[in-house]
Amino acid sequence: MILYYHPLSSYCWKVLIAFYENGTPFTPRVLEDEAALAEWQALWPLGKFPVLHDPVRGATIAEASIIVEYLGRHEPGTFRPIPVDGDAAIEVRLMDRLFDNYVMGPMQALVADRLRPEEARDPRGVTANVAALRSIYALLEDRLAGRSWAAGDHLSLADCAAAPSLYYADRIVPLRADHPVLGAYLNRLETRPSFARVLCEMQPWWQNFPFADGPLAS
Ligand SMILES: N[C@@H](CCC(=O)N[C@@H](CS)C(=O)NCC(=O)O)C(=O)O
Questions:
Q1: Which residues form the GST C-terminal domain (predicted)?
Q2: From the alpha carbon of 15, which atom of ligand 1 is closest?
Q3: pLDDT at residue 62 tops 70
Q4: Whose Cα sits closest to atom 11 in ligand 1?
């Protein structure tokens, strides 16, 4: 399988964590290389990454959650992204949506705003997105109480979504001081070997993250 990704991209981290958890080999096509960029644009004209291409099945899969689900279906291994039990699966999918829509969404908007020229920034949007992050932090603090991982005792798709979204959000609006449960969960994610590997591999690009020098708000 061929994975088109960038090492600094949060949604790509989500997929990389799943591949590393499962120990599934893949051909990396890093979107810095001109040839890789041209292949990716031809495969997925929507211009979003990650994208997975499976030449054996002739499949091109986009959307990080769907790529992780595809991996679980076609390369079953030690990592089970979606539990077999239907109710447990619903909780995993709900948590996956919470992390993508309510953590990743405001976090990406804050990054996009910071990357704009100063005169094109939107202070009201920044205030709203900081408030949105604080609101989801509070919800997660309650919902994660007593859980080892996002949806219970087992690592799942939801943790693949949680790791990048919380890691980046915490560097913009720090969460640990006021959210001990959420902070402890982020610590567990950061020391998990699959995610630690992703964090190590992104280091050469880290200076491009616009909040690398410090957060927006504490
Ligand atoms: N809904 C997509 C979102 C993917 C996404 O937003 N990827 C970002 C990188 S983290 C991207 O493609 N950015 C390029 C752009 O929006 O032009 C998913 O779940 O995979």
A1: 89-216
A2: 20
A3: yes
A4: 48
Tell me if 97 CB under 6 Å of ligand 1: no
CB of 107 within 8 A of CB of 196? Answer: no
**Cβ of 64 below 6 Å from ligand 1:** yes
| Inside any domain, residue 212 | no
CATH number where 126 lies:
1.20.1050.10
Domain count, the chain: 1
Q: Tell whether pTM > 0.85.
A: yes
Q: Is the CB of 214 under 6 A from ligand 1?
A: no
The 10s digit of each residue's pLDDT in 4-45 is 999 999 999 999 999 999 999 999 999 999 999 999 999 999
Q: Tokens representing 111?
A: 């990054």
Helices marked H in the chain: 10-22, 34-43, 64-74, 86-97, 105-115, 123-143, 157-172, 180-191, 193-202
**Does the beta carbon of 11 lie inside 6 Å of ligand 1?**
yes
Does residue 148 sit within a domain? yes
The answer to the question of residue 141 being in a domain is yes
Residue 30 lies in a domain: no
